[in-house]
Amino acid sequence: MPEISNLFVVGLGIGVVFVGLICIVILCKIVSAFCMIGQKDKPKDTPPAPVVATNEPIQNRQEIIAAVSAAIAEELGTDISAIRILSFKKL
Questions:
Q1: Are 78 and 71 in contact (CB under 8 A)?
Q2: Residue 64 CB coordination number (10 Å)
Q3: What separation in angstroms does the CA of 36 have from each of 10, 23, 26, 47, 55?
């Protein structure tokens, strides 16, 4: 049996990998084309309205501060009494 060259094995391996990658790219493009066809039939959503900053006071301010404090305490693994909130602004 003739001996196969190491260079031939390397070339064959690289060739198989690149042919496989090219097949994956082609398959992705075909699936993307099918998805785009299905998406054209749906009506486009209107973009969300921009958020306008107002100077209205925050409703339920104490409840929001309590919830934020509890979430921060849970994340940090500390007691909620160890957290002091110095300021709280509506963005």
A1: no
A2: 13
A3: 39, 20, 15, 20, 44
DSSP 37-59: HHHHTSPPPPPPPPP----PPPT
Tokens 């306008």, residue located: 52
Neighbour-count burial for 32-44, b at 16+ CB within 10 Å, e otherwise: eeeeeeeeeeeee
What is the Cα gyration radius of the chain? 30
Which pTM value belongs to this model?
0.41
pLDDT per position in the chain (91 positions), as tens?
678 899 999 999 999 999 999 999 999 999 999 888 877 666 666 777 776 666 777 778 888 888 988 998 999 888 888 888 888 876 6
User: CA-CA distance, 71 to 50, in Å (whole number)?
Assistant: 28
Amino acid identity at 15: G
